[in-house]
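Lab notebook, entry 330. We have the chain sequence and a SMILES string for zinc ion, and the next step in the workflow is to get a structural model of the bound complex before anyone spends time on docking refinements. Request logged below.

Task: model protein plus zinc ion, output structure tokens.
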Amino acid sequence: MNGPYRQAATAIAMATCLALSPAAPHAPALAATTAVPPSPIRQAPSFFRMHVGRFEVTALLDGTHPFPASTVAVDARPGEIERLLADQFLPAPFEGMINAFLVNLGDRLVLIDTGAGDLYGKEGGGLVSVLAAAGYGPEQIDDIYITHLHEDHAGGLLRGGKPVFPKAIVHVSQADFDFWTNDSNKASVSPLLQPFFPAIQKVLKPYVAAGRVKPFAPDADFGSGLSAISAPGHTPGHSFFRLQDASATMLFWGDTVHMAPVQFPEPDIAIKYDWNVPEAIAARKAVLAEAADKGWLVAAAHISFPGIGHVTKLPHGAYQWLPVNYTLNR
Ligand SMILES: [Zn+2]
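Result returned:
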């Protein structure tokens, strides 16, 4: 750096030193920067569109919330969560996502999970406005496939006590439907999960009354390239959905990975929301290995928006998440 540029840089550096120095009588330079008010506009509603073979897939961000990984992790060593987050330049708690996915199957418009509706307060319930931003309305949804009956996946069936989707058939695994609609199972789960029983029964009720809940068997084939893969553990009937067109495959894997910065490097760390911890860990490790081996695209409920990417294997049983390339050209 030479000539006038060097002189200017030196002058700026000196001015900055003066402004920052506690000995300086005033700090006018920094004070001036705070005169610009923060934007009054919240982040834009977020959707992201891509294609899987001939199918159009749109990720819909229902909401985000601080995720208390340190308090809900199971079987983590002392300080391990904080270390993993710090290694990835993330605060504790880090921000968790609630993603749902819209799939245009050509003959039907389907939704995979519904977000949290009213059940997460202001931290969820954005799905309908994001759906509108993406060019669709809830009245157009033909079928809804629920990965599992937890509040942040099925809560969006209802807003303000009213069903959101006037014609959709709600597909949920028979095992999850039987479990969460039977109060005698309440005693078998942790206190953390017990409020899910009345919440889930409430959001399902108008759809059950209208004859629009259709429980499915393990590994059901729904036609048009969409099928279920039974993956119990997180809940009794937790299911993946596979979308397939020729060689293009996308796996919607629900809550296989709840805490991406923790469970990709350490898949053995579970979460207190798991119904059966050993089964949930086994399901996670099996599908991580398969997704990495087959190079499947994965669409995930709780990975940073849009929650779509690939998985690769690392040494010592660890995995890595590789997000898709963002684009506006869809
Ligand atoms: Zn979830």
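Notes for the group: The chain has ten helices and 18 strands. Worth checking against the assay data. The first strand starts at residue 47 and ends at 52.
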